[in-house]
């Protein structure tokens, strides 16, 4: 039986080597299913197996003149298909690693830029706050600095400045509002102003 099959393959290959498209269609029909099943076992992926099958038969047709020299077509087909599949898997793995490396590089660069932007933004913000504080009336400026820079409580500030606790609270509210207004009017986005709404 195998001898008949072998002779049948040899006849098809000879016909295909002479450009017989019908013989090639018969060969594809006879082997594509078997080859696909074999390649799925190797690649563990139906899409890759399907691609390899298509590429193998395309390659066979493009190099059909040499098919007449093939002795055991089935063994030869499975060997070259296996090599092709392994090569494709290596290429896919290499491409995946390249994408991962590229992702890490771009992510690192993006993180660096983000940190740089954040540092620049904070520096601009600090300068604006300092300028805004410098423009406050002396009493409001002193209350704000004691509360926000030194972290003192209302009662401590009231005692130090010899004013009431309510006056401290009022000065702090007015000072904070003035600082926010200054920042809004001097080029920083409004949303940044909200970051200091609790000043």
UniProtKB/TrEMBL annotation:
Domain RNA polymerase sigma-70 region: 27-93
Alphabetized CDD domains for the sequence: Sigma70_r4
Keywords: Sigma factor, Transcription, Transcription regulation
UniProt-listed PANTHER family: RNA POLYMERASE ECF-TYPE SIGMA FACTO, RNA POLYMERASE SIGMA-70 FACTOR ECF SUBFAMILY
Gene3D superfamilies in the record: 1.10.1740.10, Winged helix-like DNA-binding domain superfamily/Winged helix DNA-binding domain
InterPro entries reported in the protein's UniProt record: RNA_pol_sigma-70-like, RNA_pol_sigma-70_dom, RNA_pol_sigma70_r2, RNA_pol_sigma70_r4_t2, RNA_pol_sigma_r2, RNA_pol_sigma_r3/r4-like, WH-like_DNA-bd_sf
Protein name: RNA polymerase sigma-70 factor, ECF subfamily
Gene Ontology molecular function terms on file: DNA binding; sigma factor activity
Gene source species: Chitinophaga ginsengisegetis
Residue intervals of the RNA polymerase sigma factor 70 region 4 type domain: 129-173
Pfam families (alphabetical): Sigma70_r2 (PF04542), Sigma70_r4_2 (PF08281)
Family that this chain belongs to: Belongs to the sigma-70 factor family. ECF subfamily.
A Gene Ontology BP annotation from the UniProt entry: DNA-templated transcription initiation
């Amino acid at each position: 039986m195998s001898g008949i099959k072998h002779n049948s393959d040899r006849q098809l290959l000879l016909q295909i080597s002479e450009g017989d498209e019908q013989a090639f269609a018969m060969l594809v029909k006879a082997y594509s299913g078997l080859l696909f099943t074999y390649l799925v076992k190797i690649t563990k992926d139906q899409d890759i197996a399907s691609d390899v099958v298509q590429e193998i038969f395309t390659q066979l047709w493009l190099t059909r003149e040499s098919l007449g020299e093939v002795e055991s077509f089935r063994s030869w087909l499975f060997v070259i298909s296996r090599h092709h599949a392994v090569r494709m898997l290596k290429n896919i793995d290499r491409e995946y690693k390249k994408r991962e490396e590229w992702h890490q590089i771009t992510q690192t660069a993006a993180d660096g830029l983000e940190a740089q932007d954040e540092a620049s933004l904070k520096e601009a913000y600090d300068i604006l706050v300092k300028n805004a504080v410098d423009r406050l009336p002396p009493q409001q400026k002193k209350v704000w600095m004691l509360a926000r820079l030194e972290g003192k409580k209302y009662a401590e500030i009231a005692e130090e400045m010899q004013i009431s606790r309510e006056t401290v609270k009022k000065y702090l509210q007015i000072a904070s509002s003035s600082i926010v207004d200054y920042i809004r009017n001097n080029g920083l986005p409004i949303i940044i102003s909200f970051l200091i709404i609790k000043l």
